[in-house]
Specification:
Jelly Rolls, about 10% helix, about 190 residues, elongated, two-stranded antiparallel ribbon, mainly beta
């Protein structure tokens, strides 16, 4: 999984609500779409830092397979962790973001996290491995986020591209020049 010269892992931490990388099916030929198959896990379960998780072949296990764009709740519902909120009283089988509401309705017992804590209070990691084509010298590589909701940190090859203060909004687009960390070959987004 690791090779010399890889445009290594990029880690995307979503704080409280998750952003989405939108697809552009008719994008230019030099654009690599990163929507689609990703992995996701709570930072409560994966207790390490972005630098460590964002190196190629970090070997972490037990992540949820997700399709991006998504939200954490939608991905967990699709994975069967929580029931579909649109059906019956299923909303009362899923923890709320409000601890007060959870206490009032005894919803904490439905948390999937080991200590039954509120699953929406801590950040979530998203990651993806991909191959970046070989690039000519001097070529710039731009990382585009077509939508993010609400906060995120972005990591690439053990380097923090953006922190949670730089990348905060509701459905704002972000673009980062990642040329200094991008090298053609096997790549991992985290």
């Amino acid at each position: 999984m690791r090779s010399a010269g890889s445009f290594g892992p990029l880690l995307w931490i979503a704080w409280f609500a998750v952003g989405a990388l939108q697809a552009h099916p008719a994008g230019p030929p030099n654009r690599l779409e990163l929507s689609g198959d990703w992995e996701m896990q709570s930072s409560v379960v994966i207790r390490t830092d972005g630098a460590r998780l964002s190196r190629p072949g970090s070997g972490v296990r037990d992540w949820y397979a997700v399709k991006v764009p998504t939200t954490v709740l939608h991905a967990l519902t699709k994975a069967g962790v929580y029931p579909d909120l649109r059906i019956g009283l299923n909303a009362y089988k899923t923890p709320d973001s409000s601890d007060e509401f959870n206490a009032r309705h005894d919803l904490s017992k439905f948390s999937h996290l080991p200590d039954k804590r509120n699953p929406w209070r801590d950040p979530w990691w998203f990651r993806r491995e991909f191959t970046l084509p070989k690039l000519p010298a001097g070529r710039h590589v731009w990382l585009h986020f077509d939508s993010i909701n609400y906060r995120a940190e972005v990591w690439l090859n053990r380097n923090k591209v953006a922190d949670r203060e730089q990348m905060v909004s509701i459905n704002q687009r972000f673009v980062f020049d990642v040329s200094r960390w991008a090298v053609g070959g096997r790549t991992t987004w985290r």
